[in-house]
């Protein structure tokens, strides 16, 4: 069966042992020989409990941190997709956590003791994660601004080098031989003519004003709609020539040939292209590394949340089993019903799986106003589609 991209992180109190809690869940998620989900133990270390008052206060902070870290992780993945451009369809394969795919990381989750020392109070660990992700968020804004500016400038230049002859940069289409240069009296104009009017141009261009050099017009380029012609004439009649050309729907482009400017324009684009290529590799690596950092930080926040809410829900001493369910597609409804039957004895309010409008403040087992007698957090790992 095909698994979805959503996991359900739940916890239930230990029976005689937490192993029995785990085994009972596994038995019940196989309905009439058909598995409803793939289940994994969600391994939690011996975290510091602190006082219940601290846990109650921390619960709300963790909810906000959870949303913030998830949001930054999405921003990293979406920007990586933008940077990959033509390779955006391969985004999912580039989103790894500690060098492995996201599903494998989730199902084999191990607490990172080096980054998040468990001897620290939970509030301190949450602050470590918050500072870490905030720094990544700030760095992402800086790097994206720099790369986007470079990319935007290059795209503007590239747009000018293609497209209609009415708007594109003509410097890449002409060369010195097309122009009369260093003349005190003569100049060469570039004129855009609709293809359907080329015969009209050829018959009229010498007569649009006096002092036009006979047979001086040459076609030097074409696009799908227009052609580009030269015409040489005396400088003193340029304004008159432009006026009469416009009356005949011939468009004179403002262009003065300069080898230095043509070379400078080409050099600028080449330099920008080189700069973009130089930044591309390091930026992709940075995004992949920091996606991994933020994704793993996010799952650690989920781990702290399930621990805190389980202690608040089930009490002390700590005795619960955290479990990760990976529902198969189209089994979510039956799986939810199975969990309701399995854990209905935990419900002391008589409101399990009903929508409540007020008087509930039960993070971890109150999701979208729906109450569950067990601690429950959905985790969707689909970071390759736009949020």
Describe this structure in words.
- Belongs to the V-ATPase C subunit family.
- InterPro entries: ATPase_V1-cplx_csu, Vac_ATP_synth_c_sf.
- Keywords: Hydrogen ion transport, Ion transport, Transport.
- GO terms for molecular function: proton-transporting ATPase activity, rotational mechanism.
- It comes from Stichopus japonicus.
- The longest helix is centred in the last third of the chain and has 56 residues.
- The protein is elongated, with a radius of gyration of 34 Å.
- The chain is built from nine helices and 14 strands.
- The protein folds into two domains: 229 residues, subunit c (vma5p) of the yeast v-atpase, domain 2 (Up-down Bundle); 81 residues, Alpha-Beta Plaits (2-Layer Sandwich), CATH 3.30.70.
- The relative contact order is 0.21.
- The chain is α+β, with helices and mostly antiparallel strands and 387 residues long.
- Helix content is 46%, strand content 17%.
- The chain starts with 5 loop residues before the first strand and ends in a 7-residue tail after the last strand.
- The strands form five sheets. The chain has a four-stranded antiparallel beta sheet with strand order 4-11-1-14, sandwiched between helices. Strands 8-9-7-10 form a four-stranded antiparallel beta sheet, with helices on one face. Strands 2-3 form a two-stranded antiparallel ribbon.
- A hairpin with a 3-residue loop joins strand 8 and strand 9.
